[in-house]
Structure formats: C-alpha cells, structure tokens
Amino acid sequence: MFTFTPIVFAVVVSTAINIFVTVVSWRRKKARYGLYFALGMTGVTFWTLMSALDYAATPLNLKILFATLEGWGYMSAHPFFAMFAMSFAGYDWLLEKKWVKAFFIFVPVTNILWVTTNSWHGLVWREFIQKADNVVVFVHGTAYGWIYASSNLLSLIIIASLALTSFKGSIFSRKQGRILLASILFTEGTNIAYNLSVGMEGVDWTSVAFSATGALFLWALYGRKFLDIIPIAREKLIDSLSDGMIVLDMQNRIVDVNLPAARMVGSLPEKLLGRNMDTFIPLAQALSGQPSEREMRTELEIGGAERRYYDILISPLFEGQTSVIGRLVIFRDITDRKRIQDELQKIAITDSLTGLFNRRHFFDLGEKEFAKSTRYNRSLSVILLDIDFFKGINDTYGHFVGDQVLTQVGFLFHKNGREADLTARYGGEEFIILLPETDCASAMLVAERLRKLIEESLIQIGNNLIRFTASFGVAAIDGANAETFDQLVSQADQALYEAKRVGRNRVACYREE
Predict the structure, then answer these.
(1) In whole angstroms, what separates CA 20 from the centre of its chain?
(2) Alpha helices in 89-117 (DSSP H)
(3) 476, 415, 412: which is closest to 443 by C-alpha?
(4) What is the largest CA-CA distance in the chain?
C-alpha cells in the first residue's frame, strides 16, 4: 500500500523541518501578526505531510485522496501567508476592510471545494496517468486554471508586500524583508517549474522546496535576530506597558513602535512604521549634536488644549560592542506629576482666598522689576490699598462676609488689571499692585479707577446690601528717592496713611516734600 522512494524521503525531511518551524511559530501565536504566520505554517506542514503520503501510496485512489488533502493544506496556507506578509509590511489596516476579508475567505474555500468535488465533475484533474517510480501524472482540467490564477494572485500579494518591505524602512526591516522574499520566491519558482512540466514529469517539488523556505524562515527568526528589531511575534508585554516605546534607525525612522507610543500621536503602530519620527514627535533638537552612543534624558510637551508631558529616555542600540545601529526611545507620561508640581508651585506663590500672588512671591518679583527699572531709568509705581473699616465689617457681619469682601477685591483686580501688572494680597485687608513702565500720575489714574470700582461693588447677605470702600497710596520711582524696593513700598504705605488721615476712600501719592 505504501512504498519508500527518494522522493518520499525528500518530502519527509521537508515535513520535519516544517513541523519544527510550526511549533516555534505557535509558541508565539499571541504576538503581533504571529497567528497568521502560525496558521500559514500549519497549512504548509499539513500539505507536505500529505504530499509524502501521496508519493508513498501505491493505490491510485489513495494517491487521489492524499492529493486532495494536499490541496486543502496548500490552499489554506496561501491566504494566511498573504495576511502575514501584509501585516509585516505595515498594511494591517487593509485586513480590517470587509472586502479584503471576503476575498481571503472566498479564494481558499472555492478552491478547496473544486478539489474536493473533483470526482463528480473532473474539472480539476480530468485524467491520471501512471508513470515509473510510483509517480502519477495528474492531467489538469479547466477548473485548474482558476485555482492556479487565484493562487498566483495570493502569491503576488505576498511577493509585493515583502518586496515593498525590502525597499523601504530601516536597514533592518529591508534585510529581513529580503530574506523572507527570497524564501517565497524560491518556493514560487519551484511551483512554476512544476506547472511548466520542467523536470521530472508528475513530481511537484514545491512541497520539498518548503524545507529550504522553512530553513530561511528560521534564519530570519534567529540568524538575523528578527525578534530584536522587527519581530514576527512581539511579546505581549511590550504593548501592555504603560510607557511608550519607539525603536529608531540612525536616520530617525520608526522601525518598531508599541501601542501606547502610537496613541500619543493619535495613530496606529502600522501607520508609523518606516516614517521619520520628527513628523510626529519633535525630538530632532534633542538628538541633534548628541553622540549616537550616549544615553540622554529630556522632557517633551505634546498636544494642544489637552497637553501631555513626557519624560524621554533615549538609549543607543548596539550591535556588538561599538557599532550603534539605532536608538530606543522610552516615553513615560508625567502629566499628572507635572500638574501636581504646578499646583504646588501655585499654592506656594498665591493667596488661597483671593487667587492673587502672596506677599513673599510679590517681593521676589518686585525686587527684580525694581532693579531692571532703576538700571534702565524706566518708570515704576506701587499702589498699596487698604479696605476701609474692615474690622467693622467682620464684627458686624462675621468673618465669612469679610472673606467675601476680600474675594470681591481680588476678582476686581483679576478682571481689570493689566497683564504686565503684579497684584498681591499684602496682608489682612491690604493689597498691593506693581505697575511697570508707569509713572505716579498714571498710577494715580489706575488707583482712582479701582477705587471707584470698589466703591460701586455690592455684596448681598440676605436682604442686606453691603458696600465698602478702600484707601489708596501710590509711590513711584520718578517721584521719590527710593533706593530699594522695600523703600518704594514703604513710601506707598506712607501715602496710604495720608489717604486715610484726610478722610479715607481716596487716593494719595507720595512726594518727597
């Protein structure tokens, strides 16, 4: 029933190699496009196994049965390898299209049906001719033309996808694409030779050629460190990390990218492969002038209204001891930490009740402005104000109402102050304003406008409408002899005292006389 010939031996060796490759591929099936490769190799292994049984079987009916099962393996492997090649080339998004899915289902199902039902119609194999060495020639029928054309279309998809990868992207992806392309071309060339009746008639060496193809795939997987840069199967951990990871070649082209990094720029990993990272993430300045073998750290701000902040670690990737072949960029989202820092900074420099600067921060900024104004002989004024009879408000209505008065004054300053002015709560019911590039006369106008706004303000407590006023003291560099910022503030305080002395709810400007 079975006989062992040299042809059978060759196909058995091919099957053994393919089994090994299939086992390896299934161990990595959960990784990126690893399932397509594993399914394709399963089909190929089934095909070569049935081919061995076909060439070993002696009864014609067994040969036809195993030839039919060969078709199942071959025709199911083809679309999976096509999907693998498209994914490898970065065209995963095409596989999500309904018409593409329908095509990859329609072709193998149709071909398998033609082969399986051949005994009814004889359109795939119309005649079987016995030759020497237990070889049977399967004479092709008209339906074989459809099977051959559709299979070649899938082969063209595989070849085109791998060819594109061989000429684009980084040097690593090109090398890996060329290895896979060479392995497929070798197998397809053998299949063409069979269909052109080149070589031993009736013997299809395509299944045997897959032993070499399997060896080339193993070399791509291990000999070229395929998993290190452009993996057939990436560990699931890479995409489940919260940190973004991008692998660059020496031209800053994206060789590999995980899902969190792709989400940072609002894209998909497959759409970023092969493209220059500077198109999406402005890191050119950070990398410019830096030795390629040096590790560096920087921060990056990305986004519009919803800005995100990232801590960036850029590490060189070495081949051997000294040759830098690329860079690994790790993005750690520090937005929450930045916001906490900003909030703490804000708390440190602002008054919690009014939202204005606190006294300490005001003096830090004020001393710098004072030094700049005196150095360049520019105008600078200070307005110090005190809410009139504030203690009476607290005693009459309570501290809650007093806080509302202070908040209302802070709101008026926020709404009506200039962007260049510095406003702070000086202490208790006192407020202070620093006005750069402003002389005493102009500062008096600002103070008078604020005085009127405060006088016109109302706070309603139940049925009571509470009015309040404030007194203002103004001092300016051009109207006094202040040698320090503290002295200028002290002069504004003296002017404020004068405003209160002569009747409150008014503005006074300090003069030397």
Answers:
(1) 36
(2) 92-95, 98-116
(3) 476
(4) 129
Take residue 277 and report the two structure tokens written for it.
């990272």
pLDDT at residue 228, as a whole number = 40
pLDDT value at position 465? 84
Q: How high is the pLDDT of residue 224? A: 46
Sheet holding 244-248, edge to edge: 254-257, 244-248, 323-333, 308-319, 296-302
For 261, the 3-state DSSP assignment is helix
299-318: pLDDT as tens digits: 777 766 677 788 888 888 87
Q: Structure tokens of 444?
A: 């008096």
> From CA 367, how far away is CA 297, in angstroms rounded?
35
Identify the band that residue 229 occupies on the pLDDT scale cut at 50, 70 and 90.
Answer: very low
- The structure's pTM equals 0.47
d(CA 424, CA 430): 9
Active site residue 295: no
- The rounded distance, in Å, linking the Cα atoms of 454 and 461 is 17
Beta-strand ranges (E) seen in 308-448 are: 308-319, 323-333, 380-387, 422-427, 430-436
* Mean confidence (pLDDT) of the chain: 79
277: which residues sit within 8 A by CB, 6+ positions away?
A: 246, 248, 252, 253, 254, 283, 329
Nearest residue to 235 via CA among 266, 256, 219:
256
Beta carbons within 10 angstroms of residue 414's beta carbon: 12
Q: Which is more confidently placed, 452 or 240?
A: 452
Active-site residue, from 70, 188, 270, 429: 429
Torsion sign over Cα 260, 262, 266, 268: negative
- Contacts of residue 44, Cβ cutoff 8 Å, sequence gap at least 6: 18, 22, 73, 74, 77, 210, 214
Q: Which of 225-229, 292-296, 478-482 has the lowest mean pLDDT?
A: 225-229
- pLDDT at 490 (0 to 100): 92
Find the DSSP H helices in 307-398: 335-349, 359-375, 390-397
Dihedral angle of Cα 272, 273, 274, 275, to the nearest 10 degrees? 10
The amino acid at residue 41 is: M
pLDDT at 212: 66
Could you tell me how far CA 91 lies from the centroid of its own chain? 18
